[in-house]
Automatic annotation (TrEMBL):
<dbReference type="InterPro" id="IPR003593">
    <property type="entry name" value="AAA+_ATPase"/>
</dbReference>
<feature type="region of interest" description="Disordered">
    <location>
        <begin position="237"/>
        <end position="259"/>
    </location>
</feature>
<keyword id="KW-1278">Translocase</keyword>
<keyword id="KW-0547">Nucleotide-binding</keyword>
<dbReference type="Pfam" id="PF00005">
    <property type="entry name" value="ABC_tran"/>
</dbReference>
<keyword id="KW-0472">Membrane</keyword>
<dbReference type="InterPro" id="IPR017871">
    <property type="entry name" value="ABC_transporter-like_CS"/>
</dbReference>
<protein>
    <submittedName>
        <fullName>Aliphatic sulfonates import ATP-binding protein SsuB 1</fullName>
    </submittedName>
</protein>
<dbReference type="GO" id="GO:0005524">
    <property type="term" value="F:ATP binding"/>
</dbReference>
<dbReference type="InterPro" id="IPR003439">
    <property type="entry name" value="ABC_transporter-like_ATP-bd"/>
</dbReference>
<feature type="compositionally biased region" description="Basic and acidic residues">
    <location>
        <begin position="237"/>
        <end position="247"/>
    </location>
</feature>
<dbReference type="InterPro" id="IPR027417">
    <property type="entry name" value="P-loop_NTPase"/>
</dbReference>
<keyword id="KW-0067">ATP-binding</keyword>
<feature type="domain" description="ABC transporter">
    <location>
        <begin position="6"/>
        <end position="221"/>
    </location>
</feature>
<keyword id="KW-1003">Cell membrane</keyword>
<dbReference type="InterPro" id="IPR050166">
    <property type="entry name" value="ABC_transporter_ATP-bind"/>
</dbReference>
<keyword id="KW-0813">Transport</keyword>
Amino acid sequence: MSDTAVQVRGLRRVFGERAVLDGLDLTIARGEFVALLGASGSGKTTLLRILGALDRSDGGEVLVPEVRTIVFQEPRLVPSKRVLANTVVAMPRGAATRETGLRALREVGLGSHADAWPGTLSGGEAQRVALARALVRRPELLLLDEPFAALDALTRLRMQDLVGELCRRHRPAVLLVTHDVDEAVRLADRVAVLRDGRLVTDAPVGIDHPRDPAHPAFAALRRRLLGDLGVHQEIHRDPASPAHETHPSAPSPTGATLS
Ligand SMILES: Nc1ncnc2c1ncn2[C@@H]1O[C@H](COP(=O)(O)OP(=O)(O)OP(=O)(O)O)[C@@H](O)[C@H]1O
């Protein structure tokens, strides 16, 4: 069996006159967690959608495993199905048992919500159901498109911990699209930056978990990534003096965020 989960070579995607992806190369090993940063409109979601077979390419080569699942920014639950039924909704008939769904719900801390309706869940709970629905199929590739972006700061940190823990346990290959530099460095084995249709950075993180944003290696990688993203101003991170913030876009509570 190959060690490679995803192999992309020379990928092109053109909208109108603009080649949003233009000769992009990306390899993700089995079990590897890659975070993808890039300015708004740089093509991150386009790449993710192509890997998830939700969009086509206009050239190049894309090799992905068969079992791949996606978590979007919004949970996209079926309102007329209870939580348990939502969790197993995409599974093959025979595999969609109550026990399989319950196990996945317990993993995301929602074992007691199996019979609840989606409309009664908080945003964080609904997103955890979406995560359970994605993981229950035991994907070889998990595609995460800004899955924490709509959550409040505390819920976001908890979700990041949960996703990190579950991915380390189940070891799917992961591509996480995010605007949050700290989120990328906290979670990923490698962080890539997309600019002008290609990956201009592919940086291994190499810091033990749990990762402390105050760790010098964390701070150094944050600086490098912000530089690669074209953000050159120093960020003052002292929460007691927000007036010192000089970053052009406000950082998220978990770190520096691009807009
Ligand atoms: N179906 C489409 N038709 C035309 N243009 C599109 C289509 N999908 C995406 N685009 C354009 O491609 C560019 C890249 O979009 P994409 O959503 O991939 O960027 P992104 O990096 O994910 O942005 P953001 O961080 O703001 O979500 C944008 O300019 C977008 O308008």
